[in-house]
Amino acid sequence: MQYNSEIQNSFYRAKLKGAKFFSIGKSFLGRDILCCHIGSMQGKQILVHGAIHAREYITTLLINRQIEYLLAKQKRGNLDLQVGGIYFIPMVNPDGVDIVFNGAENINCKLIKERVNKILEKSNKQLFKANANLVDINVNFDAKWGEGKHNKTVEGTENYIGAFCESENETKVLKTFTQKIKPSATVSYHSKGEVIYYKFKSDSLTLKEARSLAKLASAVTGYKIVSQGSSSGGFKDYCMEKLSIPSLTIEVGRDDLTHPLSKKDLPHILQQNLKLPLRILEKVLSL
Ligand SMILES: [Zn+2]
């Protein structure tokens, strides 16, 4: 048994509606990191990902529903994408998500199981954010790596930057895939707070485009744009600084909800975000 039935079902549902998932690489424990492409392979592409932080798996449920929405539109003949497409990666951190539900139960390697269990002894597994190597993937990227205010240099449930920059499988898989498809924009879904981040060290054109995408995302979702806090080593940070790709981090779910967000929070999040990837693609295509 992996994850839980809710997440399994969300992938099954998307597949039943016609989603074709393919693997872009393996996690630390060897699970596939799945991706689904919608639209045309020609022209500009965007990349949308979720669940880089384990406890934020609500973003996996959201992205699978975004895929279903676009497939249904396509089926009705209402999706006219002669050029432009969207790559969706619903779950960057499958091992971590499994730990949130099952602790170290499904880890076969004795050594890793012991390390994870040691950390879980002092913390609630439901609040787990890292991967199964106890590294926080979203502080492991090569963008001001290790300079964040909340960064940690010891393994744990969150904020551990890793033994070295881009040490993790998941980091490398996402980086390599992004370099390969060269998206014109990226959206990183996290929870929670109903806010949008876009600022990071970048050239002025990238920053300007990111700001305009943030404004669009804010208009669609109703979320507030906030100026950057102490972010470093994140995927959005890496895309902005190293690849000059305008990129957003979007935190779904009201701030007063508790982690992990539950299925009953999903309808509201869907209402705010269902159409956003298509709107961002349309905007990117118009630039
Ligand atoms: Zn997060």
Report on this model:
It is a single chain. The chain has 287 residues and is an alpha/beta fold. The protein has a single domain (5-274), classed as Zn peptidases (Aminopeptidase, 3-Layer(aba) Sandwich), CATH 3.40.630. It contains nine helices and eight strands. The protein has helices at residues 5-16, 58-75, 94-102, 110-121, 169-181, 204-221, 235-243, 266-273, 276-286; strands spanning 21-26, 32-39, 45-49, 85-89, 185-191, 195-197, 224-225, 247-252. It has an eight-stranded mixed β-sheet with strand order 1-2-4-3-5-8-6-7, with helices on both faces. Strand 1 and strand 2 form a beta hairpin. The chain starts with a helix and ends with a helix. Bound molecules: zinc ion. Residues 53, 56, 190 line the site of zinc ion.
Whole-number radius of gyration?
18 Å
**Count of DSSP-assigned helices:** 9
Taken in chain order, the helices and strands follow as: HEEEHEHHHEEHEHEHH
Largest sheet: 8 strands, mixed
- Average pLDDT metric: 96
Identify low-pLDDT runs: none
Strand order of the largest sheet: 1-2-4-3-5-8-6-7
Strand content: 5-15%
What number of structural domains do the residues give? 1
Tell me the overall shape.
globular
Within CATH, the superfamily carries the name Zn peptidases
Under the CATH scheme, which class?
Alpha Beta
Bound molecule types: zinc ion
Distance between the termini: 45 Å
Topology, number of strands: 8
Structural class call reads alpha/beta
In CATH terms, what is the fold-level topology?
Answer: Aminopeptidase
